Amino acid sequence: MGGARPLHPGLWLGVPALLCVLATIVFAAPIRIYGLQLPEPVFAMVPAFAWALIRPSILAPFALLALGLFLDVFWGGPTGLWGLSLLVAYATALAGRSMMTGQSRPMMWVWFAGVTAVAMAGGFLFSMLDSLAMPSLLAVFWQFLVTTLLFPFAHRLIDRFEDADVRFR
Amino acid sequence: MPFREGPLGDLKVPLTWTAAVALIVAVVIAVAFLLADRRETLQQQAYGVTRQTVDTVSKPVSGVIAAPGRWTGLGVDFVSSYFFTASENRRLKAELKEMRGYRDMYLAEVDKNQSYRSLLGLRTDPPIPMVAARVVADTRGPFANTRLADSGSEKGVVVGNPVMNERGLVGRVVGVANGASRVLLLTDIASRTPVMIDRTNARAILTGDGGPNPKLEYLRGVDPIKEGDRVVTSGDGGVVPRGLPVGAAVKGLDGRWRVVLFADDAAIDYVRILLFKDFAQLADQKALLTRSLPPVTTEDPDVSILGPAATASTPPAQAGATPAVSGAAPTTAGGTPATPAATPPKPAATTPPAAKPATATPAPKPVTSKPATPKPATPKPVTPAAAQPAGGEV
User: Fold this and answer.
1) A92 touches chain B (CB under 8 A)
2) Which residue, among B143, B183, B254, would best test binding to A if mutated, counting the most A CBs under 10 Å from its CB?
3) Which of B23, B53, B269 has the most A C-beta neighbours within 10 Å, making it the best mutation to test the interface with A?
4) Per-residue model confidence as pLDDT tens digits over B173-192
C-alpha cells in the first residue's frame, strides 16, 4: 500500500477551483481596447476535464457544481446552467477516462476540445429550454474556441496529480 | 469499537461507483436549481438574496480589479491626445462648423415646437431623474450578457429601470442590492425590448441572442425597414420611455434584421440609470375609477338608446328609405307586410319585364333605385304600421 497515498482534497480540488474563480473575476473586468473586449473563457472547464482524468472522486462533482453555481450567479445567468453543463462534461470525461489516459499531448488537446464542445452543447440546449430562445451559434463557437485554448492549464493539472495515487494510474 | 475493527471494516465500496452516484446526485441538484430558476421573469423576488449578496461582494472586488484597466485606458487616452492634438483640432473645427448649422436649426425647431405645444395645450412627459453609475464587471458569454454597476437601492434604483450610456440604450436593471445593481444587456438571450423604426414607426421586439447584434422580431407593416434605419424604443408596455436611441438596422448574415447598438460605440465603464416610472402610473387610478360617466344619449336628447325602442319618432325620410331597402327582399320577409312591398313594384312594372324575376340577385338594384324618387308619396298612408316591422327587424 506504499503507493496508496491519499490526495488532500484542498490541494487538487480546492486550489484549482479557487484559481478558476479568481481568473473568472479578472476576465470580467470591463476593459475595451480599440473596441475589442476581453474574451470570456470558461475556466471551470479545466478542472472539469482534469479532475475526471486524475481520479474518480466523490467530492469532485460537488466542487464542480459549486463552481458552476458561482459562474451562474457571478455572470447573471440562469442558476444551474453552468453547474449542469460542467457536470455533463465531467461525466463525459469520466466515461472516456480509460481511453484518454496516456495519450499524447495533441491528442489530449483534441479530447479536451471534444469535452468542451459537449459542455457548450449542453449549455446551448439548457439555455434554449430555459429561455425558449436560441442562443447565437457564433457567440457559442467563440466561447468554445477561447476555452479550448486553456488546455495547457488542464495538462499541467493532470501532470501534477496524475501520479499522486498509483491506484488510479 | 472503532469502525475498522468491526464486521464492516473490510467492506470496500468501489470508488468508481461511488463517484458515479455522487455525480448523479450533483446532476439532480443542478437540474433542480435550473428548474427553480425564475430569472426570465425579471422580477425582484426572482433575483434572490444569494445573487444580491454575491453582487454586493463582487462590487468592491471587481472594482479593484477593473481599476488598473481603467487607469491604463485613461493613460492611453492622455498620451494619444498629446500626440494627435493637431489632427484632432482639425477634425473638431470641421465638426463645430457643421454643428453650428444644426444649432440654428435646433433653436428654430424648439421655438416652433413651443408654439405648437401652447397652441395644442399638449401635456408632455415629465423629465426623468437619472443616476450615474460605474460598471465594475462585464459578462459577455453566449448564455448571459450582464453588467454590474456600482449604484443600487441606496440611490433609488429599482428593478426595471432602463440603463443608457451617452450613445444609447444599454439594457435594464434586473437585480438591485445595496450599492450594486445588475444590468441585463439588450444582447442577453432573456432580453426583450419593444422598439420602433424611427422612419416608419413600425413596431418590433428587439430580442437578444447572446451575440453582439440583437434581432428584430415581430416586425410589422409593409416595407417597414431599410438598411441603416434608426431604431428607438417605442415605449409600448411602459417598461422603457419612448424615443431612447437603440441602434441602426442591418441585415444579418442569416437574413434577419438585426441592430448595431449605438451603445457599443461608447466606453462601457460609465452608465446612466433612468429612474423611470411608467407615466401611466402617475395618474390617480382611484380618481379614474370613481369617475361618473355621463349618460349615453342618441341624437335626440329625449331618447336614450338604452331605453325602449322609439318607433313613433321615426322621421318620414327614414320611413321612406326603409321600404326602399326592404323592397329588395320581399321574398325573405314573407307575405305579411303586403302593403309596403306591393306598392314599390308598381312603378317597377313600368320598366321592362326583365325586372320581374327580382329574386335574382343582380337585378333588384336598378329596380329599387329607380322608384326611389316617387316613394315619398307612397309611405304616407302606411306610416307607422309599415315602419315598425322594418325597424324591428333591423
Assistant:
1) no
2) B143
3) B23
4) 988 988 899 999 999 998 99
Could you tell me which chain B residue has the CA closest to the CA of A74?
B54
**Helix (H/G/I), strand (E/B), else coil: B175:** strand
C-alpha cell at A66: 459549486
DSSP codes, A49-62: HHHHHH---SHHHH
User: What is the C-alpha to C-alpha distance for residues A87 and A100, in angstroms, rounded to an integer?
Assistant: 18
Q: Are B135 and B149 in contact (CB under 8 A)?
A: yes
Residues 6+ apart with CB under 8 A from A56: A94, A97, A168, B15, B16, B18, B19, B20
Q: pLDDT of B124-170, one tens digit each?
A: 777 788 999 999 888 888 999 999 999 988 999 988 899 998 889 99
Q: Is B212 helix (H, G, I), strand (E, B) or coil?
A: coil
C-beta separation of B379 from B339 below 8 A: no
pLDDT of A116 over the 90 cut: yes
Q: What is the pLDDT of residues B355-371, one digit of tens each?
A: 343 333 343 444 344 44
* Unique residue bearing C-alpha cell 451559434: A137
DSSP 3-state assignment of A158?
Answer: helix
A78 to chain B, any CB pair closer than 8 A? The answer is yes
Cβ B386 vs Cβ B394: under 8 Å: no
pTM of the model: 0.70
Band the pLDDT of B301: cuts 50, 70, 90: low
Interface of A with B in 9-68 (CB under 8 A): 25-26, 28-33, 35, 37-38, 40, 42, 55-62, 64-65, 68
* Cβ-defined contact of B31 to A124 (cutoff 8 Å): no
What angle, 0 to 180 degrees and rounded to 10, lies between the N-to-C axes of helices A15-27 and A45-54?
A: 160
- Contact between A169 and A5 under an 8 Å Cβ cutoff? The reply is no
* CA B166, B169, B170, B176 torsion-angle sign: positive
**B48 to chain A: closest CA residue:** A73
By C-alpha distance, the chain A residue nearest B270 is A30
B300 vs chain A: nearest CA distance in angstroms?
57
